[in-house]
Amino acid sequence: MVQLFSLLDRRPFLWSLFVINFLGTIYGFYWYKNQLAVTDPKLIIFVPDSPTASGFFTLVLLLYLFSRRSPLLEAFASITLFKYGIWAVVMIIWGAVLDSAPFLEALSWQHWMLMVSHLGMAAQAVLYSPYYTFQSREILIVAAWTLLNDAFDYGLDIHPWLAASLEPYDHVVGWFTLILSFTTIILFAIFSLLPSSYRKRELPLLGAGK
């Protein structure tokens, strides 16, 4: 385990993850292009959930590479990365189960690609939890944003587009999403309280001098 956490903090590994997340974020926004095109501009910020989450994590990695940190960005990145990573995988599997076609036939190569990439998002959020420096204030801010996002997604029907087989159950999806939000917030609040010698509190805060 010590070797793993040591690897996670090595610059070549951080740069590799930065590039992967940066490219994944760009592709994620491209993936949402059709939904963004028909969304009220005032609500667009609430639509591309997964690429926004990976974008936050990309910034966290960039700060680490330049020996800086932002507890608020860490909280945004970890909580949203895990939530939407798990959410996407569950939605893809759920949609395939409800599809009229056999389960494996209902899953295209894009579904498998999305499941692998979103599981990677969730894994990153957890693996880097010993490094985060956010505390209760940052968690409360991100919790407020996350729950507001859920309210807009399912109150205004701007949630990510669902598979046709899932559309009749969008109200159930909404409740699942809300429960997942609370579960994720509590999980990372617990992570923030666990003792860790890897927390990057020695790094200057973003915007602070050397």
Automatic annotation (TrEMBL):
Per the UniProt record, one Pfam family is: DUF1405
Q: Does the keyword Transmembrane apply?
A: yes
UniProt KW keywords: Membrane, Transmembrane, Transmembrane helix
Parts forming coiled coils: none
Q: Which domain of life is it from?
A: Bacteria
TM stretches of this protein: 12-32, 44-66, 73-97, 109-127, 139-156, 172-194
Which InterPro entries does this UniProt record tie to the protein? DUF1405
The protein depicted here goes by the name Uncharacterized membrane protein YpjA
**Source organism per UniProt:** Lihuaxuella thermophila
